[in-house]
Structures are given as structure tokens and as C-alpha cells.
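re the bet — no i am not wrong, look at it urself. input seq straight from the record:
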Amino acid sequence: EMIKRGFPADLVAKRIAFFWSIGNNFFEEVARLRAIRRIWYRILKTRFGVTDKNSLLLRCHVQTSGISLTSQEPLNNIARASFQALAAIFGGVQSLHVDSYDEAYSVPTEESALLSLRTQQIIQEETGVTNVVDPLGGSYFIESLTNDIEERILDELTGIENSGGYIKLIESKNLHRKIEEYAWKQTHDIEKGVIPVVGVNKYNRDVKTPISIFKYPEGVEEKQKNILKELKLKRDNNKAKSSLEKLEWACKNNGNIMVYCIECAKARC
């Protein structure tokens, strides 16, 4: 799409970064990240003829899996997030976010958010794992698993293209259906104990672990409403309305919405 608009692939590719979630299957997640890098390189090199080495390098951010966090025995989530973070690092991630152990209940408390930060800092500063590039590379198991996952991803991509592309797949609801079916099966397997979850369907106890839960300060909603009310009184509302109308026009007419989004922001929409 960007090439159609006159931007060369080398210029566009180096500005793209990816955001992944990472789950509990340690070696599979390492292999998945390695496979994704290969596929990015292959697509850019063979399909788009990209030569810029900075464009061929896949950049990604990883967030540990929020869906794997449990409200039962929430302190177990510290271990889960730590192993997920380590898998992301072994997979070669550029940046990382570790979910906090209390996120199955609420947004994190200051204490749990600090512990998530410390988890990353301990891995970075004390373990030495960041001193090695691709530390599991060469392992027969990892290389074989990477090859397998790469082929499965390529089969998935081929299926998407044969269906008319990603947009058509979304419009047909087939993509949503596939995700829903996978999510249902995973939930079903957890409920039946096929997928073990420690503290939930395995080694579970009827003892609650008391933890501090984040509570919004009293009056924060009213305070925010007052800030918005004051903003709307002070801004140029004619300019704001005009900016929003232009943005709406751009959306409906396949225009470049970024220009109008900036205008809306400046008009305090």
C-alpha cells in the first residue's frame, strides 16, 4: 500500500515494529520469535527486494501474557511472568513489558508495578543472559521447533492471501471465528484439566492469598469531568468542530487521516 503511494519498501520497513504477547510454553515461544524474524527477512528480501540491513532486522516489543494471569494464588503470576520474560529475551526481543501479579484483579498497585520492573532489571543486570545473542541457537530441539513453527506460520499466511487478503478475512468474520474457536478450546481444556494451571486446576487449595488491590482515589471521576468541562469552555469549539468534520471526511474518502488527527489534537478535540 505504501509503495503504491510512492514510498520505497526500504524506507517503510525500517519504520515498522511489532508488538507480541508471549505465553507459558517456554521453548515454543522462543522458537516462535525466532521463526517470525526469519519470515520477516524472507518476505522483505524475496517479495519486496529490500536491501537495507536495518529494514531486514525485525524489531519487536513483547508483553508477557495477561490472559495467563490467575486470580487464584495471584503471587504465582510473578513466576509466570518471569519465565515468559526470559523466553522473550532468549527469542531476541528488543523491548519488554512484564505484567504485574495483581492484574487479574485490577490495574497494578505501585508495589506490584515496581516488582515487574525489578524482574526485568534482575534478568538484565544479574543473570548475564543479555550478554549472548540467540543463546539457544544451534540446539537441535530449538532449531527443529523453529523450522516447524515457521512452516506453520507460512501456511497460515498463504491461507490468508488465498482468501483474498487480511482485510477480506476480517470482513468475512472468518478470522474472528478462528480466534474465538481457539479461545473456546483453550478455556475448555483448562476447565477439563487438559492444560494444567497451577493453583487453578492443579495443586489448587481452598485458601485465599490476601493481596493489596489498587483503588482509585475518591473523587477522581468528578475531577476529570471538571477538567474536560473547563477545557471545552476554553478551547475554540468552532475550530474543534471543523477539525472533526475534516477528519470524518478523510475517513469516509480514504484520505490521509494523520494530517487531520494532528489538526484535531491542536484544536483540543
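see?? The first helix runs from residue 9 to 13. told u. also The chain has a mean pLDDT of 94. so pay up
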